[in-house]
C-alpha cells in the first residue's frame, strides 16, 4: 500500500501542499524527509510521539528520515500554538536537552548506514555560524512583513504581543529546510498542523533562492498531521500529575502503560490508528470488539501494550502488566522492590529508621492512623493490610518478611488508601 493511502486510512493527514505531486515523488524516489524537535526539556513527551512515529512510518515504507533537533531554534522559541512567549534557556541547558532527546529518538527510529537509515541533525550546527548580516541580507530579504503577519503562528500572537525574537522563528525554521534541502537532498518536511505556516515558508524560501540563482524550481513538499484532541475536552498527554514523558525516570513504564489503558472509549480506536503499527484489519476487529463488549477493554489493553513496548521495550511492558495485575488482585508480595516503587510512586510515603517496630506504632508514626487508639481499632476491624495481606493482630511486631528487599512495605488502610513505607 502507498504510504499516503496508509496515512489516510489512519486519518493522519491534515494537509499536504500537493497531494498528487507528493504521491508521485514518493513512488519514484527514496525521499529524504525531516521533522524538527525543539529541546524545551530534557525529554520528549507523548505529545511528540505522533511526528516521531510519522518519521518511522516513512522509514518503514523505504524513505530516509532526518530527526532535526533544534539546538539553535530551541534557544529562540516557537510561537506556534502559544499565547505567551517561552522562557529562554542557556546554551548549556539547551545542549544537554538536545543530547537527551537524540538518545530517545534513537530508541524509536533505526539509525544505521542503510539507504533509508535515519539520521539526527542539530540546527545549532549551521545557525550558530550564521552572522546577523548574512541572515538579514541572504535570508530575511525573501520574507515580506505582510507575508509573515498573515501566518497563523504570528497572527494569533499579535493581540498578546510577540517579540522580534519569536517573530524571526519562522525565518530560522525556513532556513533549516533550505539547508537540509541543499546538503541532504531533503524534499519533504512534516509536522503538526500548527507548523503549516513554517513549513510553507521554508518551501517558499527554497524556491526564491533557487530562482535568484537561475536554477530550476525545486520539488519540495509539506505534510502535516492533526493536532490531537480528546473527546472529553481535556488536553492530550496531560494527567493530574502533569505531562506523560518518554523518559522512564520522569514517567515510569507502569504510569505510561496506565495512561494508555485508561484512554476514553471514544478515543481508543482513533489512538490505535494514530500511534500503533497494527494493520487496519486488526484495528477494525478491535473496533467491533469495543462495540460488542466494551467492558473487556481489549482495544485499550492492545494500545497500552503496543505503546509501552515501542517506547520502553518488552521487559518494561511485562513489568507494567505484572504491577497492574498485582494491584488488581491485591497480591502485592508478587512485586519486587523496583516494581513496588513504580506502582506506588504517587501514594503517600514515609521513611522509617526503625524496622522492628510495633504495627500500631508504625501506623501512627507514618500518619496512617491519627492515634494509637484508632490504630488498634483499625487493626481489630480488619482495615489494615501489610503488602496486600490483612492483619488483625493488635500486638503485631513488624518483621523482616514484611519488608520487600529490606526497602519497602505497603500498608493499606480500608479499601483504597495505600501508604508506602521506605526504610533507611
TrEMBL record:
Keywords on record: Aminoacyl-tRNA synthetase, ATP-binding, Cytoplasm, Ligase, Nucleotide-binding, Protein biosynthesis, RNA-binding
Catalytic activity: tRNA(Tyr) + L-tyrosine + ATP = L-tyrosyl-tRNA(Tyr) + AMP + diphosphate + H(+)
A Pfam short name: tRNA-synt_1b
Class of enzymatic activity (EC top level): ligase
EC number, UniProt record: 6.1.1.1
Motif position, 'HIGH' region: 39-48
Annotated positions binding ATP: 238
Subcellular location: Cytoplasm
Molecular function via GO: tyrosine-tRNA ligase activity
Record has Ligase as a keyword: yes
Short motif 'KMSKS' region, span: 235-239
SUPFAM superfamilies: Alpha-L RNA-binding motif, Nucleotidylyl transferase
Protein name: Tyrosine--tRNA ligase
Lineage: Bacteria, Bacillati, Bacillota, Bacilli, Bacillales
Protein's gene: tyrS
